[in-house]
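Write out the 3D structure for:
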Amino acid sequence: MAKVDVVMPQMGESIAEGTLAKWLKKVGDEVKRDEPIFEISTDKVDAEIPAPSAGVLAEIKVPEGQTVPIQTVVAIIETEKGVGVSGVGGGEKPAAAAPAAPAAPTPKPQPPSPVTAVPRAPTPTPSPQLQVAAPGTESADDRLRRRSTPLVRKIAAEQGVDISTIPGTGHAGRVTRKDILGYIEAGTPPAGAAAEAAPTPKPQAPTPGGAAGQWEASPWPGDRVEAMSRIRQLTAEHMIFSRRTSAHVTTFYEVDMTRVARLRAANKQAYEDRGVKLTYLGFIVKAVADQLRRHPVLNAAVQRRAIVYRGQVNIGIAVALDWGLIVPVIRGADELSLFGIAKAMADLADRARAKRLKPDEVQNGTFTITNPGVFGSYAGTPIINQPQVAILGVGAVERRPRVMTLEDGSEVVVPRTMTMLSISYDHRIVDGADADRFMSDLKKELEAFPENGV
């Protein structure tokens, strides 16, 4: 009787855990290979996860609503009919089985009290090792042993926090991003800082969660209180983390889309005949992909004191859903034609809304585009999608008056199809001149979009 482990997949580069939102199958149900068996929720995506193998769902190890680290075994599938429910894993066979059981519940040290504000009895793991680990090279098991993820260690290094002093609420006492952000928000002072804090008139004992709690709203009569969904909580954490990590600067460029509008009108029907909708956003994604090759610092990432220039151009497109926001990724966008980009955008958006995205389709983006203009927004200042260093916001494409200079030097006001593009960039490695050169070249390409590029 062969058994296959079903694991919590990694749904994004900086994602170290996921919430098992819903089981779509019950113990004893037959499942087909690639048939959805459970839903997960992370700050990047709500998605249905397919079965790695056909067989019978023999055991569910993680209940609905529980958050576990990536690569944790959440269920067991028996690849032959027979034993319905089994307790302990026997033989493992198929190649599909991902890095197996160590990521699950073996080492369970007693978790420290989650409410202790002053750190006591840190886990026996030596603390220097926790902060020095090389990013991006560890397995899930190594990260688990160190009680933290590279993301948590990065926050700790930037904020001067010793991870070993933080009570971890994650699997096996692991310090999660929520733990370290909560620890920082609570205003727990670093060594020596307490002495400098000037005493205030009322010396009352601070409560755990102090500073953060002061800004929480209290419901009034007639208010409706609704718990945040898991994807909303994680998105909030991700946005706060991004603002804290990157030195955000935003610049705006008005772009004349009249030529693009004409090309779109002339080719719209031909695209629809091939089953693809030709949108303004498709032209923008194509032009951005071209320019990222010419301006590699906008397609980079920060690794401590080094700049990682990405060899791939993978553009994430933010998709607004009824239950949150996700960013599926068009891989190798610079190698696709306008038709290829339009087709990929439509496919990813449709499957995002149907919760049919695969884990690798929301990972490894190098640049993000968000399009609030579809709702009528004139312009915006989007927040960078970590660990990227820039994000482009697209405003509404609409007819506006514009002053144009004629050949004889006279000026006229004419209606043109216009949009406002904004780029938020990380000023740690992207200078204003870098961002402006990128945006200037992007504007030129869109205003003189080649006819043979459609």
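Residues 316 and 368 are 4 Å apart (CA to CA).
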